[in-house]
Amino acid sequence: MDAVYPNTTGDNQIASEKSYPLDYSHFNINGRVFGAMGAPEDADKANIYHVNLETTLGKSNPVKLKLPIVLPALIKLNWQDYFGGAAMAGVLAVIGEGAVSKDPQLRYEKGKVVHAPKLKEFLGAFQQYYHGYGQIILQNNYDDDRQGVAEYAIRECGAEAIEFKFGQSAKGTQPAVRINTIEEALKHQEKGFLVHPDPTEPRVRQAYEQKASPAFYAYGRLPMWKESYLAERIDYLRSLGMKNVYFKMAGFDPEDLERVLRLAVTCGVDMVTFDGAGGGSGYSPCKMMNEWCLPTVCMESILVRILQKLESEGLDLPKVAITGGLTMEDQVYKALALGAPYISIAGICRGAMAAAMSAQKVGQLIKSGVVPKAYTKYGTSIDEIFLDLPELRGIYGDKADTFSLGAVGVYSYLNRLSFGLKHFAALNRKFSLEHINKRDVFPLTREAKEVYDGVWGL
Questions:
Q1: Residues 113, 114, 116, 121: is their CA dihedral positive or negative?
Q2: Within 10 A of 369 (CB to CB), how many other CB atoms are there?
Q3: pLDDT 10s per residue in the chain (458 long)?
Q4: Radius of gyration over alpha carbons of the chain, in Å?
Q5: What single DSSP character describes residue 158?
Q6: Using CA atoms, how far apart are residues 391 and 387, in angstroms rounded to an integer?
Q7: Distance of CA 93 to the CA centre of its chain
Q8: Do the beta carbons of residue 122 and residue 94 sit within 8 Å?
Q9: Which regions span the lipid bilayer (predicted)?
Q10: S-S: 36 plus which of 46, 95, 109, 179, CB 3.0-4.6 Å?
Q11: What gap in Å lies between CA 267 and CA 232, rounded to an integer?
Q12: What are the residue ranges spanned by the domains of the chain?
């Protein structure tokens, strides 16, 4: 059974390897040579440096973003720099589900979390670099919610934003984790997790003692969120000090997409992130990563139709983000254009994690005097290779010289995305985000035309 999952979980981020017959490469970006929207028609002012990518979300607590990006849920590998770089760049970042399980000091009482100091580390990795833009969000899955993780994080750790998880594109179910002994199985069960087979059953214990029982697995519960429960739950967390609330959803059946959006409207949710096929995770079934879920570009087309329907009913829509396989500025621009005006945030996970890991490694090599050959053409010092450090000194002062270079790498990666987006926006004579729309792209294939026209569907 273990072969269903990647065998390097925890050491790698794993993503879909499937080549989908329809993706964002089936669209090209348009361009204009007349006019300017969001800037004066003045060639000295209407240029790439005057494109404004800033945006704001939040129904009662405004959250400013330097660019329309969220770094989706992650809690493995170099999370410190992933969150830190997000804060430097002024974007959203999400602490992944089950975060408390990473804490060796974790304690429960009656199935509820009462001690998980590592949560403060996760939040602090972002907060130490916060400069007025972005937000760090704690994701809660169904088990986290049952264990009271959200209220503990708000009361004891200063968390201000919670994301309720419905699903993700890499796994529409929750993972099964092998447990080696019956003693460990009993501990997991005491914490409130599902364990299979049930270690409290006499026949299971007898079979275990005879070395004839199946392996024990702890299994995350499938979310069974109910509208009435979530509405009350969100109100309660707000009473404790939660300032913003988010939903995370994947490319499930279109009926479920609409139901989640309606629930978000009812609960006053600030943003819903929809995750399409083509993404990945740290621990998801190998085949599920490739063979389930609506591809991102197709899901986006369906979402636009749903959001148009809800808007026609006079509903107050949440901010909507799209993610799943997005890495570079061309993909982000196409996603924003195809989703406009309803989908206005893009999620990027693996690209940002790759930046965190590679920049951390390169920084270590430079400090040890072993500069990788590919980088020597730029120089041999940190300042010569990490070219965005002067910008960070402008924001933080000389303490930027002490920053983790992995986080600086994430900042540089997001800075590159920002600069690239500005080029595409200026190409279409759009100098602020609200002017980007579907006319900024055009389809290259018949199938892409169906997505573009909003008629693609199940």
A1: positive
A2: 7
A3: 778 877 776 667 677 788 889 999 999 999 999 999 999 999 999 999 999 999 999 999 999 999 999 999 998 889 999 999 999 999 999 999 999 999 999 999 988 999 999 999 999 999 999 999 999 999 999 999 999 999 999 999 999 999 999 999 888 888 888 999 999 999 999 888 899 999 999 999 999 999 998 899 999 999 999 999 999 999 999 999 999 999 999 999 999 999 999 999 999 999 999 999 987 776 788 888 889 999 999 999 999 999 999 999 999 999 999 999 999 999 999 999 999 999 999 999 999 999 999 999 999 999 999 999 999 999 999 999 999 999 999 999 999 999 999 999 999 999 999 999 999 999 999 999 999 999 999 999 999 999 999 999 86
A4: 23
A5: -
A6: 8
A7: 7
A8: no
A9: none
A10: 46
A11: 9
A12: 2-174+226-350+422-453, 177-218, 357-412
Q: Which two tokens stand for residue 144?
A: 């986290």
Are 152 and 234 a contacting pair, CB within 8 Å?
no
CA of residue 248 relative to chain centroid, distance: 8
Spell out the residues 6+ positions from residue 151 whose beta carbon is closer than 8 angstroms to its own: 236, 237, 240
Distance CA 114, CA 46 (A): 55
Q: Which CATH number fits domain 2-174+226-350+422-453: 3.40.50.2300, 3.20.20.70, 3.30.559.10, 3.40.1000.70?
A: 3.20.20.70
Token match 């009271």: residue?
A: 148
